[in-house]
Amino acid sequence: MRSSPVNAYVYTLQGAIGIACREGDDAAAEYLAALNHEETRLAIVCERAFLTALDGSCRTPIAGHAFKDAGSTSQPAPLVNTFT
């Protein structure tokens, strides 16, 4: 059975690869722009904002999954606390 975001939660920002380039390197920026997946980029921005609002870190188990739904970005976000 394939899991969906509704019944299987992962920690935020999992599964995305980030690539950076030097500021002012227009040739590299143009090349990398072709690799960008805008929907994934928007989801990562939303998930980072979500973690920031909750003061999330590598030590705070917070699950969530941002995705585009009917033309807008939404964020279902259950909180997970291990009480450790």
Structural description of this entry:
The protein has 84 residues and is α+β, with helices and mostly antiparallel strands. The protein has one domain. The chain has two helices and two strands, in the order H-H-E-E. It has helices spanning 26-33, 38-53; strands spanning 67-69, 72-74. A two-stranded antiparallel sheet has the order 1-2. A hairpin with a 2-residue loop joins strand 1 (67-69) and strand 2. The longest helix has 16 residues, at 38-53. The termini are far apart.
Work out the strand percent.
5-15%
Kindly provide the radius of gyration, computed on alpha-carbon positions and rounded to a whole number of angstroms. Answer: 15 Å
Biggest sheet character: 2 strands, antiparallel
pLDDT averaged residue by residue: 76
How many structural units, i.e. domains?
1
Report helical residue fraction.
25-40%
Q: Give the termini separation.
A: 32 Å
Number of helices: 2
The SS-based structural class is: alpha+beta
Show unreliable segments: none
Helix/strand order, N-terminal first: HHEE
Number of strands: 2
In the sheet with the most strands, the strands line up as: 1-2
Q: What is the global morphology?
A: globular
